[in-house]
Amino acid sequence: MVIDELRAALGEKVSVNATIREHHSKDESFHTPTLPDAVVFATCTQDVATTLKICNAHQTPVVAWGAGTSLEGNSTPIRGGVSLDLSQMDKILRVSGEDLDCTIQPGVRRKQLNEYLSRYGLFFPVDPGADATLGGMASTGASGTTTVKYGAMKQLVMSLTVVTANGEVITTSRRARKTSAGYDLTHLFVGSEGTLGVITELTLRLFGIPEVIASATMQFETVREAVDGVIEVIQLGVDVARIELVDRDAVVAVNRYSNTELPEKDLLLLEFHGSAESTAIDIAQAREILERHGGQGFKQTTDESERRKLWQARHDAGLACRAHQPNGRIFSTDVCVPISKLSQCVEETKKDLSDSKIFGPIVGHVGDGNFHVLLTCDPADHQAIERLEEFHTRLVKRSLSLEGTCTGEHGIGIGKIEYLVSELGSEAVDAMRAIKFALDPNGIMNPGKVVGEVSLSNF
Amino acid sequence: MVIDELRAALGEKVSVNATIREHHSKDESFHTPTLPDAVVFATCTQDVATTLKICNAHQTPVVAWGAGTSLEGNSTPIRGGVSLDLSQMDKILRVSGEDLDCTIQPGVRRKQLNEYLSRYGLFFPVDPGADATLGGMASTGASGTTTVKYGAMKQLVMSLTVVTANGEVITTSRRARKTSAGYDLTHLFVGSEGTLGVITELTLRLFGIPEVIASATMQFETVREAVDGVIEVIQLGVDVARIELVDRDAVVAVNRYSNTELPEKDLLLLEFHGSAESTAIDIAQAREILERHGGQGFKQTTDESERRKLWQARHDAGLACRAHQPNGRIFSTDVCVPISKLSQCVEETKKDLSDSKIFGPIVGHVGDGNFHVLLTCDPADHQAIERLEEFHTRLVKRSLSLEGTCTGEHGIGIGKIEYLVSELGSEAVDAMRAIKFALDPNGIMNPGKVVGEVSLSNF
Predict the structure, then answer these.
(1) Most exposed of A34, A343, B24, B221 (fewest Cβ within 10 Å)?
(2) Does the pLDDT value for residue B458 go beyond 70?
(3) In the CATH scheme, what is the homologous superfamily, with its name and number, of domain B212-401?
C-alpha cells in the first residue's frame, strides 16, 4: 500500500527490483545485509519530501543512501522500508570563488566535486579515502587525512537543506561565514546519520588549491618515537596538511602486495600546503623535530608522480590488508584519543594484537589522535568475527579509558550504540533521544541507528 | 515558596537584595531592565542542578548570568524568576600543553584565562572585545577580531558540561580532537543563549602563543577599496590573524576623543601570527594586494607598545563613539554577509546613515564579512531609539537580502526573534522550538529568548 502510494506519486523512481534492493542492502562493513522493501531514486528535494510524507503517514522506515561506503552499517535498512537513493541528485549548483564556498546536491561525489572545482583553482579538502557522496560524508560526520589542517565535515559544512520526517523542508543557516542566529541546526544534522532528516542540499567551505604541495616521509624504529614526534609537531603549530602513520606491519603488507621494497619500519607520511617559501619553512621545522625523535631517511618532493610514489604505502595499505584475507570484508575500527594519550593507546593496542595473535596493521590520522586497525575477515567465519569483535571491544574500552571516543570518523551506526552510552552517559544519550523523538515522533528515519530505538516510553 | 526552598537548599547563596537584583536586571544593551525575583550565586555544578530542579518543579524562570556584557538582552530576566549567577565558578580546572586544551568553569573571564595560560606559552584566541565570561561567550556563540584565523566559540569549544531544565548533568563530548559519536550536543548548546541548559564546565581548544605577532595599518580613500582588498587577501589565503576595518567617521571620533592625529581616512588594521619568516612573507603578500587596491601609508611593527599605538583607533572606537552621546548606551548592531556582498552592504549602509542623518561609524571583522555600526543613544529618548530601530531594521533586511545573517556574533536575545524567522523560515524555527520543548518542557530556561515563547500548542 505504501509502495502503491509512492508509485502513484513518483512513478518509475520507485523500484522493487531484486538486484537493486540487494545493492542497497549493505555498506562496506561486515554487518549482516538486510533488504529494503523498495528503493526510491530521488531527483529533487520535492521527491524526498513526497517520500517522507507518505512513509511518515504509514510509519514506514526511510534510510538515505549515497554511495554505500559507510563502515558501521550506517546506511543499511535494518528495519526494511524504503532505501532513499540520492545518488542521482549529483548537481553542483553554485561555486563562488570570492566567498570560497559552493552549494551542491547530496549525491555529488568527492572526486567529482574536486575535479569540477579545479577549474576555479579551488578544492574541498575532506578526504575519507572512499569516493563517498558529500551527503553521506556530512551525515556520518566524515573526516580524514587533511582534517589536521582543514577540519572535518563538522567544520566545513556551512549550511544544509534538510527534509524532516513530516516532509518539511528546512534551511539550517545562511551562507555568511559566521552566524549566531538561533540553534545550530547545521551541526545537529551533520553526523546524525540520517536519523533526524534527509540532506538534500549542502553549502560547503572551499579552499584555494595551494601553490605548492610538498610531501615527505620518514622512518622510525618504534611507533612511540613516531607518535611522540607528531605530538611535538602539532604542539609547536607547524602547519602540516597531512601527517599519517603507517606502521611496520602495514608497510610489510604493502611490500608483499605491491611488490615494492619500502624500508620495513614504522613510517610517517607528511604533506605541506602553501607557497614555496612557507612550505620550505614548514618542512624544515617538521624535519628538525622528527629527527630529534629518531626519524630517519627523510625524503621529500613536490612533483605529483613522485608524491604518489612516496605515499604509496598509505594508498595501498587498505588493499594490501584486504588481500591478506580472501573473500574478506573490512572489519571497521576507528578510535580517537587526546594526542597526549596516543602513544600509550597505540602501544597497548599493538601488544593486544600480538597477545591475541591477530594480524592488524595500524594506520592513522595521528595528528588528530585518530587511528584504525586494518582488520579483515570472512563474514561467513563467525568464530573469526567473534575474536575480532572481542579485540574491538577492548580497543574501544581502551580509547574510552584514555578520555577518547569510540569513533573519530565512522559514526555510531549499528555497531557502536552501547559504546555511545559508555562514552557520554545515559543522561546525554537520553537528551539525544528526546531530540530524535521531537523531530521524528514516528521513528521512521533510519530507525535503530545511533540512539537505538526511541519511543514515547523512553521519557 | 520557591525562594524558601532555594534558601533551604542553598542558604546564603540565595539573595533577594535590591542592589544585587538591580545589578542582574540588564546587560550592556539598550533593552529595558527587568528585575529577577532572586539571584542565586552558584559555586559548583551541584548548586546549578539543585536550583534547576527546584525551579523546574515550580515552573520558575532561570536565566544564567556571567559578566552581563551581552548586547541583545540575552541575560536579562524578562519574565523575572531566578538570575543564576555563575561568576563565582571561576576556576581553571586543567590545562594540557600536549593536547592544547583546557577545562574551566563558566565564570572564568577571557583576560583571566589568557593571563593564566601565558605561563604555559598558550592562549585562547576568541576576543569579542568585552572581558566576558567564557560561559557567556559559549552561550551566545561569541567571536571577534581573531575569528578570521582561529574560528569562533563554535569552532573552539570541544566539550561542555551542561545542566538541563530537569537538573540532569550532561557531558556533551570527550576531549578527543574529533569525534563522530552521536548527535553534536556541544554545538547545540553553544549559541543557545541559556535556553536549553546551563553550562557548568567548558573544554576549550588552545593555541601556542606565536613566536612573532606583527601588526600593520593602511589607509584607503573609500571603504569599497579597503573591503575589495580584504576580499582578495582572504581569497588568496594569506594567513592574517586579524583584519579589521575602522571607517573614516570612527577615526574622526577617535581623534576627537583621544586627542590623536590619525590620518582621517578609512583604515584597515592587520595582525599576523607566526615565525619571523612566515609573518614577513604574509605581510609582504598582504601589502602587495592592498596597495593594488589603493592602500596607502603602510606601517608595521612587532613591538608590543608600538602595536598598541598602531591599533589605537580600533581600541578606542567604542569609547570614542559612546562619548559622542552623554548618558548613552550602545545600540547594538551586528550583521554578517558573504564577503562578496560586503562592499555593497557597507556602501548602502553608509548611504542610509547619511540619508537618515544618523551618526554611525562602522567597525568590523571584515575578513569574516561581519561589521557593526557604532550607534549610541540615551535610553530615555524614545524618539531617538525609534529612529535607530528603523535604521537597524533596514540594516538587517539589507543583510538578509544579501544572503547574510541578522547576527554574526551578538545572538538573537530579545531583539532579533522576528528576524530569525525571516532569516531561516518558520519551518526551521519550528524545529528549534520542538528541540526547546523536548529539553525544557516547562519553558523555564531563559524564557522568551531566541525562539520566543514555546508551548505544546506550537506543535
Answers:
(1) B221
(2) no
(3) FAD-linked oxidases, C-terminal domain (3.40.462.10)
Judged by average pLDDT, the poorest of A32-46, B195-209, B324-338 is: B324-338
Nearest residue in A to B183, CA atom: A192
Radius of gyration of chain A (CA): 22
Q: Which of A161, A179, A234, A243 to mutate to test the interface with B (most CBs of B within 10 A)?
A: A179
Half-sphere exposure of A429 (CA within 13 A, CB side): 20
The answer to whether the CB of B253 falls within 8 A of the CB of B320 is yes
Beta strands in B74-155 (DSSP E): 82-85, 92-96, 101-104, 122-123
Q: Where are the alpha helices (DSSP H) in A209-311?
A: 223-235, 248-258, 276-292, 304-310
Question: CA–CA separation, B428 vs B450, rounded Å?
Answer: 13
Q: How buried is B230 (Cβ within 10 angstroms: 0-12 exposed, 13-18 middle, 19+ buried)?
A: buried
B chain contacts of residue A127, beta-carbon cutoff 8 Å: none
CB contact under 8 A, A427 and B168: yes
Q: For A92-208, which CATH class? A: alpha beta
Residue B195's SS3 state is coil
* A-B contacts at Cβ under 8 angstroms: 282
Q: Do B99 and A208 touch (CB under 8 A)?
A: no
For residue A286, the Cα-to-chain-centroid distance in whole angstroms is 27
What does the pLDDT look like over A5-35, one tens digit per residue?
Answer: 999 999 999 999 999 999 999 998 888 899 9
Distance from CA of A12 to the nearest CA of B (A): 30
Residue B317 reports pLDDT greater than 90 = no
Q: Which residues of A touch B425 (CB under 8 A)?
A: 170-171
CATH of B2-85, one of 3.30.43.10, 3.30.390.50, 3.30.365.10, 3.40.50.850: 3.30.43.10
What lies within 8 Å, CB to CB, of B288 at 6+ separation is: none
Task: Report residue A455's pLDDT band, with 50, 70 and 90 as the boundaries.
Answer: low
Task: Give B161→chain A minimum CA distance, Å.
Answer: 10
Q: Domains of chain B: which residue ranges?
A: 2-85, 92-208, 212-401, 417-451
Report the alpha-carbon distance of residue A197 to residue B68 in Å, rounded.
37
pLDDT, one tens digit per residue, over A357-370 is 998 999 999 999 99
Cα(B410)–Cα(B405) distance, rounded to whole angstroms?
11
